[in-house]
Amino acid sequence: MSMNNNEGSKIMESTKEKTENQIWRELPLELLSSVMAYLEIKDNIRASIVCKSWYEAAVSVRVIDQPPWLIYFLKSRNSYEFYNPTSCKKYTMELPESLVGAIVRYSRDGWLLMSKNISSDFVLFNPFTMDLVVLPYLELWYGYQLVGFSSAPTSSSCVVFTIKDYDPGHVTIRTWSPGETTWTSTQVGSQFLDVKHNYVVFSNGLFYCLNLRKYLAVFDPSLRTWNVLDVLPPPICRGYIDDESWYEGKFMVGYKGDIFLICTYGNEDPLVFKLDLTQGIWEKKENLGSLTVFVSTMSCEPRTYVPERMLRNSIYFPKLCYNEPRCVAYSFDEGRYHPRVHNLDWEKIHSSENIWIEAPKNAFELV
User: Which domain holds residue 180?
Assistant: First the structure.
């Protein structure tokens, strides 16, 4: 029986394809798992239905991320509450006497950077373990406009960062790290500071700072350099709503080296932008992909694999719903808020101290 060239080519291609598929199926589990670890959750789920070995590899790296907890201070100012969004349970804790009346400036890695109004004392406080680190004396001069820190003070790489303009055209940057007895000061010429809220994100070894005019600057703590980036502000005006109104509900998020900007206003659908330094723009995104982001003024916590009962590709806000123990959220998959009527008052949220904070694995043993 004769075979023409076309039939022969099809057989060869089919054989080659089967061989390649067989090679992928026979890859060691460790190698497959390392590949699966780079996939977004949607792609991970798709890959898991290819065959048994791919399913095992995909599931092995699909580790559920523990969502952050919401911490908020009670009116008495001598206690605070945790809210666990997974179990919808609350836990009340007493605030150390030395911190009564203090306010939160920033949060990261389960720690709070706190100070009292018009005070020269900064402290790092772990509200789960009650550990307290008192920082060296620093004259606040009626408060700093931007503050943040890179990691927990238990890490040798921790850097606390403050910035303020004492006179037009100059900003003074001060930093402190564990083991140091004084702050290190640097003054640079800059017209950057024009801030209303604390927009600071530490990523890629840099502090990213956003001002009210939507311009971005970075401070490199290792080189002690300050640069205002040549990045155009995102065009967020939508119809009758002005840019200033959108920025009442503005949050900056760092995730695996990427910087995102989330802008919200009233019942409008949130806008998401991703920083593209190569093009010098904020690129508009239709959604968050596999991410779920927990946003608050003093901290934003991104997660990849949240528990099944929680919304994915969503934003969780630092506000509990009326008459029910759950937070207001927005789902990009559904294109709506949960609940539909939420009454988010951004001015109150920005002035409040409802903050998402990373909870330790043994949080239930500590509260």
Answer: 102-229
